[in-house]
Amino acid sequence: MTRTINEEELESRAEARSRMSGLEYMQKVAAGEVPQSGMGQLMGFKITEVSEGYAVLTVRPDDRHYNGIGIAHGGLAATLLDSATGCAINTMMPAGRIFTTLEMKINYVRPIRGETGVVRCEARVIHVGGRVATAEGRVVDEQGKLYAHGTATCMLFQTR
Amino acid sequence: MTRTINEEELESRAEARSRMSGLEYMQKVAAGEVPQSGMGQLMGFKITEVSEGYAVLTVRPDDRHYNGIGIAHGGLAATLLDSATGCAINTMMPAGRIFTTLEMKINYVRPIRGETGVVRCEARVIHVGGRVATAEGRVVDEQGKLYAHGTATCMLFQTR
Amino acid sequence: MTRTINEEELESRAEARSRMSGLEYMQKVAAGEVPQSGMGQLMGFKITEVSEGYAVLTVRPDDRHYNGIGIAHGGLAATLLDSATGCAINTMMPAGRIFTTLEMKINYVRPIRGETGVVRCEARVIHVGGRVATAEGRVVDEQGKLYAHGTATCMLFQTR
Amino acid sequence: MTRTINEEELESRAEARSRMSGLEYMQKVAAGEVPQSGMGQLMGFKITEVSEGYAVLTVRPDDRHYNGIGIAHGGLAATLLDSATGCAINTMMPAGRIFTTLEMKINYVRPIRGETGVVRCEARVIHVGGRVATAEGRVVDEQGKLYAHGTATCMLFQTR
């Protein structure tokens, strides 16, 4: 059930985020009190854990996520990693402090398939500086087997 | 109109690709004679050009691709780049030679929004060796303005 | 003939760079009017070309650059790439605008050996924005054969 | 005191490595029984710890490692990271199994200076598969403050 985020909602979000820390905000998204992003809905992601410097997102891969050769497209793990590292960094941002991803890098170590079942990306902040933050994430299945890992670099801003 | 690719089709594809070069195969996908991947359909990608060592994929960003702050999620450009670099490398593979992505890296230089209109990822092969190939891609709008750029590394295999 | 850069010289450099554009500065380094960096001297790099958005550095690999298995250590091409992309970005900076590398990524496609002879890294700016710049470089031999390629992301600052 | 590794020694090394596991070999290098690589000597690296899947290399930065603006060149941490991740992967290789670096990626989070004192790169294997291995490393000072972090991807081979 896709719930679209309209202009009004975007503004109220930005406004909310200028009064609320990133951690409070992510907790509301995880609790379903704030609708997830369009991409999160499109992909079927769930935010299952957020704490200071840490976030976990999950997805159940199916053939919507497949590439042409019967395994999940690299974009699935890449989008999951980008989301999870962004959430982890968000949990470290005070009210009024936002960020944008500068770059992301992912290694694929095993193919993800429907049979893999739910995979989770566990992301941890590595460094938060004055202008830049970095985080890493690992995509694992329910047995902890590794499928992909990577890092992201974000630039930090003050909302006006 | 999502057309699902079932098990049977996957097998017939793998079989096709063992008799057909990557370029022939990509040309059939571009012509719509072979259905696009699940992820390509989910994201709304179009393959608009394929030639030896080169591929162009396009997408019209909309709020399904958005992150929580009103711009396209990093996963959109990442998935587009992964697809386009993979297509470019595929065009260099003879029949029976396939590959898998080892790693991908993307830099985001400007936010992509609905107003940006159609963006295209132009991907070019950098190197094809005996076991590994690399390619780069740039995501630009219709005026050629740059939004993201990156590279991918693939490992090459022989189908049995 | 290693010429050390002492504290005094560093200050006079920073001062010079606050009056001089990055391009003027790099041209002076290329002309030998300003001593090269310690690392450039240690590695034996030469800056052979600088123009707007472009720089070429060369090195003749020998066994000082080797790893334990008889080929040049990955650090040789990495250091050459980091230098060349930095030079290319520097050529786009007005007086008083400096930068620092946020991250760098390199792909190795062939081993570099002493027999390879002089290799050059040709670096080009990809994007210069308000706060961030990116550049790419390719390490090739005198016949243009590719050995390594990569990108760097720099953050831009104003000298006080 | 640079001790050059000649052709004969290289051959005896390759031969040694075909009978000895990577861990045994790295322990001999760490113990000074096998001379370090040319690059390790040029940079002044020391291998201070090796165990299964783990390696630590150190360096005392000085003005030989500097770039043009009074801080250590990005190539110092990049070369240290490439060495340390390579050592960590080597410790997981049985006799006769060698590897080459496919790609490396490094993030710089703080400038390294002479005053920083000895820095160490602690590298850990992330994944060892049939054909590819990945490892990560962090460059820290003696207080554990982070200066750089990154990952490397290696391709595995059988010596003939």
Outline of the structure:
By secondary structure, chain A is α+β, with helices and mostly antiparallel strands. The first copy, chain A, has helices at residues 7-19, 22-30, 38-43, 74-90; strands spanning 46-51, 54-59, 97-108, 119-128, 132-140, 146-158.
Helix and strand run of chain A: HHHEEHEEEE
- In what order do the strands lie side by side in the largest sheet of chain A? 1-2-4-5-6-3
For this entry, what is the oligomeric state of its chains? homotetramer
Derived structural class of chain A: alpha+beta
Report the largest inter-chain contact.
A-B, 46 and 47 residues
| CATH architectural type of chain A | Roll
> What's the alpha carbon Rg of chain A, rounded to whole Å?
15 Å
Number of beta-strand segments of chain A = 6
Shape, per Cα inertia axes of chain A = globular
Number of domains of chain A: 1
**On the 0-100 scale, what is the average pLDDT of chain A?**
92
CATH topology call of chain A: Thiol Ester Dehydrase, Chain A
Number of helices of chain A: 4
The CATH superfamily of chain A is: Hotdog Thioesterase
End-to-end separation of chain A in angstroms reads 34 Å
CATH class of chain A: Alpha Beta
Percent in helix of chain A: 25-40%
Structure description:
The first copy, chain A, has a single domain (7-158), classed as Thiol Ester Dehydrase, Chain A. The first copy, chain A, contains 4 helices and 6 strands; from the N terminus they run αααββαββββ. Chain A has helices at 7-19, 22-30, 38-43, 74-90; strands spanning 46-51, 54-59, 97-108, 119-128, 132-140, 146-158. Chain A has a 6-stranded antiparallel sheet. The N and C termini of chain A lie far apart (34 Å). The relative contact order of chain A is 0.18. At the A-B interface, α1, α3, α4 and β3 of A face α1, α3, α4 and β3 of B. β3 (97-108) of chain C pairs antiparallel with β3 (97-108) of chain D, so a sheet runs across the interface.
